[in-house]
Amino acid sequence: MSLPKSMQQPMALQLTSVGFLAFWCLIAAFPIFWIAVMSFKDPIDAFASNPLSVIFGPETVATGRGLSIVSIVVGIAFLWYTVHLALTLLPKMVNKYTPPHLLVPGWIIGALVFAIGFLIVFAGILPPVLSAVNSILGPLGKPILGLTTEHYRAVWVENAFYENFINSMIVTVGVVTVSLTVGTLAGYGLARAGSAGSFIAFWILIIALVFRALPHSVLVAGYLPPFINSAEILSPILGDAAPTLYGKPWAVIAVLVSINQPFTIWMLRSFFQNIPNELDEAARVDGCTHFQAFRWVIMPVMWPGVITTGLFSFLLAYNDYLVCSLLLDAQNQTMVPAIAGYFNRETTTTDQVEAVAAAVSIIAPLFLLIMVFQRQIVSGLTAGAVKG
Amino acid sequence: MNTKTFAAFVGPSIFLMLLFIAAPLVSVFMQSFYVTQPIFEQVEVETCTPGFPTQTCVTETKIQPVLGEDGKVVTDVKYVGLESYYNVLEPDRAWAALKVFDFDALLTIDFWKALRFTLTFTLVTLPLVIGVGLAIAITVNNATRMIRGPIIFVSLLPFIITPVIGALSIRWLFIGDGIMTAFLEWWLNQDIAMFAQGWTIELLMMFYRVWHVAPFAFLVFYAGLQTVNQDTLESAVIDGASRWERLRYVIIPHLMPLIVFVSLIHLMDSYRVFEEIVGFSSQAYRISLQWLTYDLLTPDDSGNRSISRASASAMLTMIGIVVLLIPLLRKTWRDHKGGRV
């Protein structure tokens, strides 16, 4: 792209703006990068005041845990090869083995198989092979970069963090599925309802705005007493089967779905409005009912909108602290509130590094999520704003 | 689409919203006027200990909760009117402090302390978020196309990651003799403890919030910059407008609706500031309105939750929201009348 000379930037301005961008990227990524580095080090190294000893971890190396030059080179090569495979082989295999109408599940299964394969080789096969190679190599095989995974092991195995992980998964999967099912139906109904739809849609927009601002603690204050006493309240209707809603993941799912519902409907409605009306009218002329038209004509073309909305539902449920910590008891706690238990009890520095490791474990999936869905996240964020 | 089909499509969603949004709000409103307390009774208890020549017996009156047939404490719900609001606001103490302009005394009352922090936090971070977001958007828009994707990726990180963990990651840089504290100590040549006093924690919390929200502002402004009319820009150049004047008189006015949009979203979000309090464990020094309600809802040492006071503080927070939203709602209403929605 060639600009007219008058529009080109002077050198000083270019340098300043490049410097500013570099500075911003540093600030944006540094805290996250740094806790990732910290989580692999001995407590003494992790909280050292000299940044170099945090990166290289002399104390960690001194106890014999670390990577040699050979390991680093092999590791990087392996990672690069994995990315290469993910970009070339994976799409080819998915396209080859899945029928076209099952592309989304096909991709999910493909990605899962790929991730599991990667983990088996990277965490299971590579370390013992490399340690055998290192012991033969002598000086080249000496560890130079301290690295230990013991904190992750402590968090996931000894402290049973996987239970919190499973709870988080139950809550997020539940919220995304229910919220999208209910939301797509309502969004479609509103988008096709003509003037009545636009009237209701306006009020839903108002509610969505109010809910954007309403502190969730206000709602939770309303949920708590009925949830704790729900067994008594519901027993006249349900008899002995009346459940205590407090502490039940599915109760939290219902709460989070409802909180997010106005936003979901609003977003999906604008997506459905962009799908031409003629499409389902044609289906209706061919004798479909409204539901059949929705199932067979609209559903195949609605995925971009549904994925974007689903991402935001996922983030809401995954990142939630307040609702989960108040409405779930300790046995059913999700990951984010559970981590509060770590840093509040931080008595020793080992506990602190374990908290760091738990934190990194929580944000790692989000990192992948941004990598895969960057385009959808950006379009979802800007859609509401630019349309006004 | 007839009414029946419409109801079938929209029904489940409306049902959920009524049950889990409307009903709780009504119930919070009701709860704030009632207090649930265990019923206590006075009993005389005779305790005897073996002694010589006879047992030593002591009779004392004790106050203990009444237990029902199922062995649970019997509670009693009492209408208290505005007492819970009174307990949250403590108007007597607040007024006494205000009369002598003793703001420190006013800020010992939790509610006013929380209100002070929430408002300062909101108003300080707002211009910073807009400014930083705009600066990043403009520089990225001027940068070569190739690096835009990676920069958007890196910028999304602070925005997408779990807020509590984002706050924690910044806290860990500063905690104890962490590298950032060490750096500041070396730079300013004095001893620094970031978590020993309120104002430094407040600074960190504000820094975190700007770090967390600036990417959102950046993306919205960046999307807006793509639609700036190039002809207007060129004619501004021909008319001899400098770079700064073009920014001031062409680009900023074009982005104005988006700046208003981001400001509103930011106002609403920072009004309910909460995760920072958890992440920085600042409750000893700084609390927010939402944290106040949260704290009242958490069981205290004896396992009781002050539901009534929490409801009162929740209702007070709601009033703030209504005040905050009136201009926005009026604008939306006007747009609706004008047929834009």
Short key terms for the protein model shown above:
heterodimer; A: 388 residues; mainly alpha; MetI-like fold; two-stranded antiparallel sheet; globular; B: 341 residues
Number of strands of chain B: 4
| Helix/strand order of chain A | HHHHEHHEHHHHHHHHHHHH
Q: What is the straight-line distance between the termini of chain B?
A: 21 Å
Percentage of residues in strands of chain A: under 5%
Q: Segments of chain B where pLDDT lies below 50 for 5+ residues?
A: none
Largest interface: A-B, 104 and 108 residues
CATH superfamily of the domain at 109-297 in chain B: MetI-like
Q: For this entry, what is the oligomeric state of its chains?
A: heterodimer
As laid out across the biggest beta sheet of chain B, the strand order is 1-4
CATH architecture of the largest domain in chain A: Orthogonal Bundle
Biggest sheet strand line-up of chain A: 1-2
CATH topology of the largest domain in chain A: MetI-like fold
CATH secondary-structure class of the domain at 109-297 in chain B? Mainly Alpha
Give me the CATH architecture of the domain at 109-297 in chain B, please: Orthogonal Bundle
What is the mean pLDDT of chain A?
A: 79
Total discrete domains of chain A: 2
Strand percentage of chain B: 5-15%
| Overall average pLDDT of chain B | 81
| Unreliable residue runs of chain A | none
Overall helicity of chain B: 55-70%
The SSE order of chain B reads HEEEEHHHHHHHHHHHHH
Describe the structure.
The complex is a heterodimer of chains A (388) and B (341). By secondary structure, chain A is mainly alpha-helical. Chain A has 2 domains: 31-153, no CATH class; 161-334 and 360-387, MetI-like (MetI-like fold, Orthogonal Bundle), CATH 1.10.3720. Chain A has helices spanning 11-38, 43-46, 51-56, 58-62, 69-97, 103-137, 150-158, 161-191, 194-213, 216-228, 230-238, 249-274, 277-285, 290-298, 303-319, 322-327, 335-344, 349-387; strands at residues 66-67, 145-146. The radius of gyration of chain A is 26 Å and the shape is globular. Chain A starts with 10 loop residues before the first helix and ends with a helix. The mean pLDDT of chain A is 79. Helices cover 68% and strands 9% of the residues of chain B. Chain B has 14 helices and 4 strands. In chain B, the strands form 2 sheets. Chain B has a two-stranded antiparallel ribbon with strand order 1-4. A two-stranded antiparallel sheet of chain B has the order 2-3. In chain B, α5 crosses α13, α10 (230-238) crosses α11 and α11 (243-271) packs across α14 (307-337). At the A-B interface, α1, α8, α9, α10 and α12 of A face α1, α5, α6, α7 and α8 of B.
